[in-house]
Amino acid sequence: MRGEVKFRKKLTRLQFHRFMADHASALVVMEACGGASYWARELVKIGHEVKLIAPQYVRPFVKRQKNDAADAEAIVIAAQRPEMRFVEPKSEDQQARAILFRVRDRLVHQRTELVNALRAILYEFGHSIPQGIHQLKRIEAILEEENSDLPTLVREECRDMIQQISEKTARIEARMKTAKALAERTETSRRLQTIPGVGPMTALAIEAFAPAMESFKCGRNFAAWLGLVPRQFSSGGKERLGRVSKAGQADIRRLLIIGAMSRLNWLGRKTIPEGSWLAQMLARKPRMLVAIALANKMARVIRAMLTKKEDYRNPTPAVAA
After folding, report:
1. b/e map of 35-53 (b: 16 or more CB within 10 Å)?
2. 39 shares a domain with 19
3. Which of 207, 215, 216, 237 has the fewest CB atoms within 10 Å, measured from its CB?
4. Is residue 106 part of a domain?
5. What are the tens digits of pLDDT across the range 7-18?
6. Average pLDDT taken over every residue of the chain
7. 113 plus 197 within the same structural domain
8. Residues near 95 by Cβ (< 8 Å), separated by ≥ 6?
9. Which domain holds residue 31?
10. pLDDT, tens digit, for every residue of 150-189?
């Protein structure tokens, strides 16, 4: 790949497919975007090799003005770099699972928005309601009071919002049921759920968004891909580490941290052996910091389990000599 320009053509989607079908087998490099995985699958079907590059790795190679031609040139230059990292194209099954995950996530956000709007309305009339979906019964009790100080119109609108929340909850539960059914079908999901703190939604997110674990050299690389490692500000041989980078896949990272927090609450702490790494961390570090460290460890365990195709095994406690 010498980077010499052979074609300068502006093609429609249909024309592009025909052009690539008539072209000899070649390496096709594209920027990872919404339709990139679809085109990667289509181009592989007609005999091409496809690689995807993350947009943030292409941007430094764009010369001055940004347009389609400059972007295409930058993609070619970036692909020629020997140290360049590429994105694994997603399969149709992965994209379908990702859509299920995103739809459920969006419904949860919409329900939370409705609950907060309902709390805001009641707050304007002197009723302070704590956060949380579990406060819905308390809100309903306020609306149904016989001697309520709320205007009739406000009560009617609030009841309508409660009805919308109920509909959202039913849709969320339906997606959760589908996610659990999917998690029972594959060996990967079943294996992932043997890890403490990993449930059906986390397993679904890993299957939908994570590339093959063999593409990571070690567990730390997978944790770094998730953004669970400290940001570095090192220079002149002096190592300076900051907060977690948050530079990777946000959905899996969030779910792993939530799963780690569930192991550190008052109920989960009962299962932590005394003298273990986790118990020692909890004794001297803030709980949130320990949760992030545990999520990092969970990411390394996930990579090891999926590459070795083994279920989770509880670590054997060290025996004092």
Report:
1. ebbebbebbeeeebebbbb
2. yes
3. 237
4. yes
5. 888 889 999 999
6. 88
7. no
8. 37, 208
9. 13-79
10. 898 999 999 999 999 999 999 999 999 999 998 888 899 9
